[in-house]
């Protein structure tokens, strides 16, 4: 370990603001790169499921009204 | 070889194989990034001339190197998509663009922040920095071009052509620090001779480069999976997949 205290590690002899801000932005970038597509996939799957369910409900309604018509 | 080629062209096969690769690749990526970042931030010794500001290198160099390598992957996908009309290559091309744009942005931003304490300025219009900015615009251009077309096939062709034309920029970026003398230093890691960097700094840097390559691969597979889902949403296999997942979800809820 190159630093004795947390304050020293944060300050980095005056360069702390530069170094830590870059690592902060990198953390955000990595999160976006890994989580962004996962959230997109989930949203697409949810949309598809909603579409399938409404299709299924429509089919059920249609078959019900057909059955009632026959009676 | 052709069986493999055909398999690669099958969306369900690629979707499932990418899923099984990601199960171990994502944890490895996160571990490598965490170890590399802690090593670079806290354990690598300070530079005798730049002090601690050089620790930005552990992000700047890997992000820039992988942003460049990502362009090769994208241009190769562009060529395959143009020559063999392979749908998966078009999906790979489209998936590379946001990752490359993000990594190039990170490389440029970290370079600017590193430049302030080292060069005394955030930005210089030298060959390396400007050609990296052009790379960023190329990635953003591909994203914009995809959005600009209603016809997906036409959009794919235009983007493939743009990605191939953009490869002209790559050797310029590589060689810029040797061809033009500027504030940006020449490469410290060399394949043909000894690196000009001490091992105590080189080791965490190499680890971070490997970590960023893994990050690129993970993100590419994740983006490709979501793009496959979008394009194949009306197919039977996606419907089955969605219903199976919903079944699992309701079973877990019970």
TrEMBL record, chain A:
The chain crosses the membrane at residues 20-39. Pfam families: CcmD. Its main location: membrane. It comes from the Bacteria. Keywords: Cell inner membrane, Cell membrane, Cytochrome c-type biogenesis, Membrane, Transmembrane, Transmembrane helix, Transport. It is found in: Cell inner membrane. The keyword Membrane applies. It is a single-pass membrane protein. Belongs to the CcmD/CycX/HelD family. NCBIfam families: cytochro_ccmD. Required for the export of heme to the periplasm for the biogenesis of c-type cytochromes. This is Heme exporter protein D. The gene is ccmD.
UniProtKB/TrEMBL annotation, chain B:
It is found in: Cell inner membrane; Membrane. The keyword Nucleotide-binding does not apply. Keywords: Cell inner membrane, Cell membrane, Cytochrome c-type biogenesis, Membrane, Transmembrane, Transmembrane helix, Transport. InterPro entries: Cyt_c_assembly (IPR002541), Cyt_c_biogenesis_CcmC (IPR003557), Cyt_c_biogenesis_CcsA/CcmC (IPR045062). It is a multi-pass membrane protein. The keyword Transmembrane helix applies. The chain crosses the membrane at residues 21-44, 56-84, 96-115, 127-146, 158-174, 205-224. Residues 14-183 form the Cytochrome c assembly protein domain. Belongs to the CcmC/CycZ/HelC family. Required for the export of heme to the periplasm for the biogenesis of c-type cytochromes. This is Heme exporter protein C. It comes from Candidatus Litorirhabdus singularis.
């Amino acid at each position: 370990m190159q630093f004795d205290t947390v304050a020293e590690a944060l300050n980095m002899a005056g360069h702390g603001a530069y170094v830590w801000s870059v690592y902060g932005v990198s953390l955000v970038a990595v999160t976006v790169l890994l989580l962004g597509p996962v959230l997109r996939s989930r949203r697409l799957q949810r949309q598809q499921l909603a579409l399938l369910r409404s299709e299924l409900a429509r089919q059920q309604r249609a078959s019900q009204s057909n059955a009632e018509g026959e009676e | 070889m052709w069986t493999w080629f055909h398999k690669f062209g099958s969306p369900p096969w690629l979707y499932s194989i990418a899923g099984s690769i990601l199960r171990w690749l994502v944890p490895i990526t996160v571990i490598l990034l965490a170890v590399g970042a802690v090593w670079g931030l806290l354990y690598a010794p300070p530079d005798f001339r730049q002090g601690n500001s050089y620790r930005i290198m552990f992000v700047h160099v890997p992000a820039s190197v992988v942003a460049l390598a990502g362009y090769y992957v994208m241009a190769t996908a562009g060529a395959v998509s143009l020559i063999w009309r392979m749908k998966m290559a078009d999906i790979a091309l489209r998936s590379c663009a946001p990752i490359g744009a993000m990594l190039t942005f990170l490389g440029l931003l970290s370079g600017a922040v590193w430049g302030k304490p080292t060069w005394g300025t955030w930005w210089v219009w030298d060959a390396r920095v400007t050609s990296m900015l052009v790379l960023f615009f190329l990635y953003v251009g591909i994203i914009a071009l995809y959005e600009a077309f209603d016809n997906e096939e036409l959009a794919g062709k235009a983007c493939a052509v743009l990605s191939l034309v953009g490869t002209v920029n790559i050797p310029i970026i590589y060689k810029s620090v040797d061809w033009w003398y500027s504030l940006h230093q020449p490469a410290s890691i060399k394949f043909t001779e000894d690196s000009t960097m001490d091992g105590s700094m080189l080791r965490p840097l190499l680890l971070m480069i490997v970590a960023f390559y893994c990050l690129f691969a993970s993100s590419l597979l994740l983006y490709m999976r979501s793009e496959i889902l979008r394009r194949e949403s009306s197919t039977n296999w996606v419907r089955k997949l969605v219903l199976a997942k919903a079944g699992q979800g309701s079973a877990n809820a019970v």
